[in-house]
Amino acid sequence: MSTRQSLLALSAALALLAPGLTAVAQPSLTLRSAELSVAVGAEFPRVVVYTDRRSGAVLHGRSAPLTSIQLNGADQRVTGTARSAVDSVRYALTFPDLPGVRLDASLALRGRTLTFRIDQVRDTAAFRVGTIDIPGHDLLTVRAADPAPQVAAARVELNKNGNGDRIYPVTTATTPDATPLGSAYGMVSTGKLAAAIETNSTYDNNGGAGADENGRIWRQARQTPDGPAVSVWSGRWTHRAQGSPDTEPAPWAKVTLTGERNGDGVLDWQDAAIAFRDIMWQPKGWEKTKDRVVQRIPFNIASSATHPFTRTLDDTKRVNQATDGLGQFVLLKGYQSEGHDAAHPDYGGHYNERAGGLRGLNTLLQQGKRWNADFGVHVNATESYPEARAFSETLVDKNNKQWAWMDQSYRIDQRRDLTSGDIQRRLAELQRETRGGLDFLYFDVFRETGWTADRLQREVRKLGWEMATEWSHRLERETLWTHWATDIDYSSETHRGINSSIIRLARNHQKDVFVHHPLLMGARIVEFEGWTGETDYRAFLANTFEQNLPTKYLQHFPVQRLSTVEAVLDGGVSVTAPGGKRQFRKDGRLLYDDGAYLLPWSPTAPDKAYHWNPAGGTSTWDLPVELAGQSSVRLYRLTDDGRQHVGALPVRDGKVTITAEARTPYLVTAQSPAPAPRLGYGEGTPTANPGFDSGDLTGWRTSGAAKVETNDLGQREAVVRGGAASLSQRLTLPRGQYAASLMVEVEPGKSRPVTVFAGGKETRLARSTVTNIVASEEKKGTKSQRVRVFFSSDGSTEVGVRVGAGDAVVRLDDLRVVAAPDPGNRWDFERVDQGFGPFVPGGEIAPTDARTHLAEKHAPFTQRGWNGKAVDDVIEGNWSLKSFEYAAHLAYRTTPATVRFEPGHRYRVSFRYAAAGTAYSWVVGEDPANGAPRDVSVTPLPARGEPGTHTVEFTASSTGDTWVGLRRPTGGDGEEFTLDEFAVFDLDAGGR
Q1: Which InterPro entries match (predicted)?
Q2: Least enclosed by CB within 10 Å: which of 129, 152, 184, 799?
Q3: What is the 3-state secondary structure (H, E, C) of 349-385?
């Protein structure tokens, strides 16, 4: 066909052929490219047959005409006219029963790819087009008569023990499918040509045919005059979603054809999957996945602020040094409000002030980039909590309760949230306030499918963010990382990750969303910053080098062939597992052998190589070509302080022999070390080296026997043994009121005087008696607690700690100085620096995430009377201390470092409270000089909807340390209890 234009007006009144009927010959048009010719319908944008112009091989489409399509779910008769050019045809489709409704569609051929598109939808006030569906469009058909017909369809299947793939031949024995079968991905092969299909199909519903992405592609086996055949076509498109004020991008489907691509001499679905990469949806940021070796989840919850943003910055620097600059993927859980699962969906404008607020967050985001780290935050578009400023009875269904840990959440009306533009405004606020510093958003517990999911993905991408989520079957197009796929100790194996060889072959280099693979491995999370109570830094580093670095090496090379015994990747890389022992090779050189390796980095342009040997010992390796020409190379051991030179290694025949300690990372390079970067621990705070991350006492003025040690979890801390010691810093602080605090532990069972001081004020303790049960705190399971002193600054202030003489070992860590007023003897909880004010978790149960937190007022939703709520979350002002305990235990208590009761003095303690039931009691207790803490008196607290005052008087113990606290004597369902206006009066000192 020349470039002539032809206008063909044809009736399309022929009925859709039933299976087995003979097709009536229909006029067709031909599109041509250098590679293909494609015969297409003249009455409708359908493909009749594809022909490879070089080989003459053919792959069929639909020979019979299409006389109806579905609009808004109902069949509608359709007629069409066509205008053609060499490589495209434009169609005008009209509907005899829908006057004024018209679809302008096209078929366009570019190279080996054919694109079907609905370029314009014209509808009327009487009939608005919502959804468009073309059942039986049959953009691809393979027949039993083809040389080696094969169908490959992949469903998004998450069961670790399942399989989402359906790969099968089409034979004379193939029986018709009663109804079409859905999948997310589809490929076919004739043995001479292979093809893949992609589409922007989306369903305007949550669940149903398109659920879990498995209605994007349809296929059906039919009996035809030419024998059994299987046809493949796109799923439904949404043009205008219900309730939406605007329309969606133009519907399209793409088909790409290919010959043999992977060098195995067989043309099958794997060749189609490789070709599919040319047309597949490209999630934003996929190019970064292969370099995100180090994966972290700094965790804040329940007002505890165990990982302030500036501390996370220090950890980012430390990890950078320990890995020689490997890329980091850092998911901040609890960046907002009181931390994790609080105040969703306030994406912006409501930051975790106790963790540093927006200023601290932006310091982390901006400065963290210098250390090769990408950052994202955990958000929620599914559930909302009443303290959220966005919360309303319009936002949520108040009768649809969701997750409840510290507060009850409710299901968001996600369609209304989108169609109103509310979620877009909240997201834009976050983007604006974080100044573009966030790389990705992680959407927690996202359950919707269809339009609400796809539109959200589009809105997030438009703001420049990448996406991650909890489960791999949600937000599948854009998601690069999913939690359950990477955190293999977390939750159910039935939802672990995508389990499909088809999708894995196509996208292994793009995503961390798959179940672990025996050859290709898979990224994993092992945490040290508190998520799920994991705090072992050494285990975190071991996972980085044992699991993630090899996985990410492979992700640099897209998969070409995949079987149960071998994976062949681009770049001459292959993976096998003889005898169950995994091996990597590149161009025949052994890189990885049963967990030991010398891996070039960066894989495609290496200037160094990482060495790891789980068993330790001596091993010999081929150097990367880029280093093999050297006469010698340098060997470094990697530490938290960066490279530690071990020595020079001779190079013989391009090989090097390394003697290594077990499970210890090393680096081989020909380069001289670059100047050590200035780490500046404490950046963004008034303190220097607050967590002793430098490995020494840099930044501190010291006297006595203090030194920095590394504990069994790999955490550095200051330790005082033997004689007296002091550590201090002179800080420059604007005039104002502050709280300085330090984690302190006196060796359990012993006594030693410790004084935390600042600005002329001090807090004293001699013993550590309360077990730290804050699961996200690195000191969990020890007796280390935060010791706080309030002070005023006139511009320059000395802050520090004095340890008296004694034989008890004293451990110190994590200095914080933040603006906060001194509450004196009355806590109103309005401006608490972190934690529960005068209280700490009671220490009686195993470490867990607290169910007590500082509650923020958002009337009427947080207060008594709304939706049947029994008590106020907040009694006075804007903040109170709220408990929602289930377990039988001591929810919280004072310590001598938070409230000191002088021995033998008479005290009055009072507070206001509200209680939804009778589950709680008030305790006066004692830490004896010898033995475990004990209750002295336990007073049941009656239920109170209307807040009231509880008062107790007692004489402080002369033989131990007295404390007070809240106990739930027996377990049961979560029950709300709010405390406020906590006051302590020393009656012997004139208090009243």
Answers
A1: Beta_sandwich_GH101, Endoa_GalNAc, Gal_mutarotas_3, GH-type_carb-bd, GH101_dom-6, Glyco_hydro_b
A2: 129
A3: CCECHHHCHHHHHHHHHHHHHHHCEEEEEEEECCEEC
Residues near 211 by beta carbon (within 8 Å), at least 6 away in sequence: 449, 450
Secondary-structure breakdown of the chain: helix, strand, coil percentages, each rounded to the nearest 5: 15, 40, 45
Torsion of CA 73, 75, 77, 81, to 10 degrees: 40
CB atoms within 10 A of CB 318: 22
> How does residue 7 score in pLDDT terms, banded at 50, 70 and 90?
very low
| Same-domain check for residues 248 and 154 | yes
pLDDT digits (tens, 9 = 90+) for 253-294: 999 999 999 999 999 999 999 999 999 999 999 999 999 999
Domain for residue 284, yes or no?
no
Contact 210, 202 (CB under 8 A): yes
List Cβ<8 Å contacts ≥24 apart for 677-681.
679/317, 679/321, 680/317, 681/314, 681/317
Contact by Cβ (8 Å): 287, 507: no
Q: How far apart are CA 701 and CA 729, in angstroms?
A: 6
Give ∠ CA 86-89-94 in degrees, rounded to 5: 165
pLDDT tens sequence across 486-511:
999 888 899 999 999 999 999 999 99
Nearest to 312 by CA among 354, 378, 363, 370: 363
Alpha carbons within 13 angstroms on the beta-carbon side of residue 423 total 28
Beta partners for residue 489, in sequence order: none
DSSP single-letter state for residue 177: P
Task: Give me the DSSP letters along 561-602.
Answer: EE-SSEEEEGGGEEEE-GGG--EEEETTEEEEETTEEEEEES
8 A C-beta contact, residue 107 and residue 115: yes
Q: Which domain holds residue 57?
A: 7-15+25-276
Distance CA(437)–CA(862), nearest Å, equals 32
Separation CA 144–CA 231 (nearest Å): 12
- Dist. CA 593–CA 580, nearest whole Å: 11
Mean per-residue pLDDT of the chain: 96
Round to whole Å and give the CA distance between 357 and 336: 8
Alpha carbon distances (Å) from 639 to 20, 198, 274, 318, 399: 72, 47, 40, 9, 54
Residue 619, both tokens: 């091993």
In the prediction, which pLDDT does 992 show? Answer: 62
Query: In the chain, how many domains are there?
Result: 3
The bridge status of strand 328-332 relative to strand 373-380 is parallel
Strand partners, 736: 793
Of 530, 541, 538, 965, which is closest to residue 780 (Cα–Cα)?
A: 530
Four-residue CA torsion sign, 657, 658, 663, 667: negative
The full length of the chain comes to 992
Active site residues: 444, 470
Among the candidates 242, 276, 310, a domain finishes at: 276
* Residues above pLDDT 90, as percent of the chain: 94
Per-residue model confidence (pLDDT) at position 790: 99
Q: Mean pLDDT, to the nearest integer, of 946-975?
A: 97
Indicate whether this model's pTM tops 0.70.
yes
Which residue do the tokens 């009055």 mark?
A: 908
Helix crossing, 422-433 with 451-462: angle to 10°?
A: 30
Cβ atoms within 10 Å of 946's Cβ, excluding its own: 8
Q: What tokens appear for 923 in the block?
A: 């305790």
Token pair 């015969």: residue? 39
Beta bridge partners, 637, equal: 644, 666
866 and 942, same domain (yes or no) = yes
Q: Cis bond leading into 602, ω under 30°? A: yes
Residues 855, 815 share a domain: no
What Rg, from alpha-carbon coordinates, does the chain have?
A: 33
Query: What tokens appear for 865 in the block?
Result: 């009377």
Give the position of tokens 């493909």. 47
Question: The CATH number of the domain where 952 resides is what?
Answer: 2.60.120.260
Q: Sheet containing 408-412: give its strands across.
A: 383-384, 408-412, 396-404
- 848 in the same domain as 927: yes
Q: How confident is the model at residue 26 (pLDDT cuts 50, 70, 90)?
A: low
